[in-house]
Specification:
single chain; mainly alpha; 7 helices
Length: 192
């Protein structure tokens, strides 16, 4: 029902159809999931995947089209705090100090059911943690962001997930790229 409501709203709002560069791969992904639906072996499971993909597109378009820079910075802060909390729990599990009674298919898992899932979430947080660290100007916030980045990076290593390590390196590269772009755009705004 959410995609239907969004579609009705979007038809009345011409601003909603403004195309961004990231819209293209997301639209291709959603289109490919929908096209594969009739060919699936398990149509019920495929319909769940279609619902997820359409919901992804809906949430993406809604958030991207109606967010301010302040809201984005707030979301990034919240995401880094959550990633740090999951990482602290996972590090304590790794050393056998706490949270060992949480259900798990493999420690350290943080607050997730399995360490691969936890590593996947923390890897998603790493570029944002790097962005926070590189763009913060206040000394106390910089220290907190450095701690968050260190805790998240350490937890990814402790998960012992080789795929996560490759993702971590890619995330660090993207974080550096984003920070450099942010730095140069802020310098350009100051001079121009």
């Amino acid at each position: 029902s959410l995609p239907i409501a969004f579609s009705g709203w979007a038809l009345r709002n011409t601003k909603a159809f403004h195309c961004r560069i990231l819209d293209i791969p997301i639209a291709i992904y959603v289109f490919s999931v929908v096209v594969q639906w009739p060919r699936a072996f398990d149509v019920y499971q495929a319909s769940i995947e279609v619902a997820k993909a359409v919901t992804l597109l809906t949430v993406y378009r809604t958030i991207l089209g109606h967010s301010t820079p302040y809201q984005w910075r707030l979301w990034i802060r919240i995401l880094v705090i959550l990633g740090s909390a999951v990482s602290v729990v996972g590090i304590l599990q790794y050393f056998g100090l706490a949270f060992l009674d949480l259900p798990s298919a493999g420690f350290p898992n943080g607050t997730f059911a399995y360490r691969n899932t936890a590593a996947m979430f923390v890897i998603m947080v790493l570029p944002y943690a790097m962005f926070q660290f590189c763009t913060t100007r206040a000394w106390d916030a910089e220290v907190l962001n450095a701690i968050a980045l260190t805790v998240c990076s350490t937890f990814v290593i402790y998960t012992r997930t080789r795929g996560a390590w490759v993702g971590w390196l890619a995330g660090q590269g993207e974080g550096h790229r984003t920070s450099i772009i942010s730095f140069f755009s802020s310098q350009k705004q100051k001079t121009g």
